[in-house]
Amino acid sequence: MKHHRNVDPVIVGLWLALAVVAIVWIAPFFFILLTSLKTRPDLIRTGPYGLPTEIAWENFSKAWNRADLSTTFLNSAAISFTKVPLGLLISSLAAFAITRLDIRSRETLFLLFAAGTLIPVQVALGPLFRMILDMGLLNKYWGILLPYIAFGIPYQVFILRGFFRTIPRELDDAAKIDGASAFGLYWRIILPLARPALAALFILDFVATWNEFPIALVILQRQDSWTVPLSFQAFMGQFGNNYTELNAAIVMAILPVLIVYLLFQRYFVTGLASGAVKG
C-alpha cells in the first residue's frame, strides 16, 4: 500500500513567494533584453512587452561605439580587478590581526573600522576632491583606487572579523606547534577556510566598484578616464530617447557583473549559508 507524504503548506507557500519575488526581479531585465533586440519602429509597434519581429543586433554595435564602451569597459575592468583583490587582501590582513593576534586595544581598532562604515560617501566628496587634487592624482587610476579601497575596507573588515572568529582557535595552536609564523597561519590556514566569505565579498565589492558613480564623477573628469557609469550618463544625455540602443548598452554593462557572479556563485552561496555576510 502506497503512503502519500503530506505536503507542508508552509513550504509550498515559501516556494510560491520565492517564485513571485524571482519573477519580479527578473522581469525588468527580461524587458530590457527584449527592447535591446528591437528596431525603433518595432518598439513603437509592439511596445516594451511584445516580442521583436526581427532581431536588431546592430543596436549593440551602435551603442558600443556611441558610448565608447571599448574605452570605459577597459577602465572599469582595470579599476575593479585591481581594487577588489587589493582591498580584500588589506581587509583580510586587518581582520586577521584583530581576531588572531595578541595586540593591545584590538577592540578599539575594530570600532574604528566599524565607524568607517557610517561615513556617507557624499559627505566626503569635497575633502576627497581637494586631497586628490593636491596629490596630483586627478584623472588617474590611483586617484580613484585609493578612495575606493579606503571606503571598502571598513565593511569588509567588519564582515571578515565575524567570519574569522568562527574558525576554531585550536587550529592556531596546531599551526604554531608545526612552526608556522603568524603570516603562515594567515596564508595557509585562515585564508583557505575563509574562501566562501572572500568569494561573497568579491562579488559584492565587484558590483559596487563597477557601478560606483559619485566618486568617479568627481575624480575622473577627463573622458578617456571615464568608467562605464560615467559613459552611461553622457550617453543618456545625447541618446536618451533612443531606447533600443540605450537598453542594448545596459545589457552589455550588466554582462561583466553577471559573469563574475556565475564564476563565484558556488562560493557565494556557501558564504551566505555559513554566515559570512552577517555582522
Task: Report on the architecture of this protein.
The chain is about 75% helix and about 0% strand. About 30% of the residues are buried. The protein has helices at about 10-35, 40-45, 60-65, 70-100, 105-115, 120-135, 140-165, 170-175, 180-195, 195-210, 215-220, 230-240, 245-275. Mean pLDDT is about 85; it is low at about 275-279. The protein has a domain at about 70-230 and about 255-275: MetI-like fold, CATH 1.10.3720. Helix 4 (about 70-100) runs antiparallel to helix 10. It is globular. The protein is mainly α.
What features would you highlight for this structure?
single chain, 279 residues, 13 helices, MetI-like fold, mainly alpha
Quaternary state of this entry equals: single chain
Look at the structure and give the CATH class of the domain at 69-228 and 253-273.
Mainly Alpha
| Cα end-to-end separation | 51 Å
Count of helical stretches: 13
**How does CATH name the architecture of the domain at 69-228 and 253-273?**
Orthogonal Bundle
Question: Tell me, what's the shape?
Answer: globular
Q: Please tell me the overall pLDDT.
A: 87
Radius of gyration: 23 Å
Portion in strands: under 5%
Give helix and strand order, one letter per element, not per position. Answer: HHHHHHHHHHHHH
Please write out the topology.
Blueprint: H1 9-36, H2 40-46, H3 58-66, H4 69-100, H5 106-116, H6 121-134, H7 141-164, H8 170-177, H9 182-193, H10 195-211, H11 214-219, H12 228-239, H13 243-273
Helix pairs in contact: 1-13, 3-13, 4-5, 4-7, 4-10, 5-7, 7-10, 8-9, 10-13, 12-13
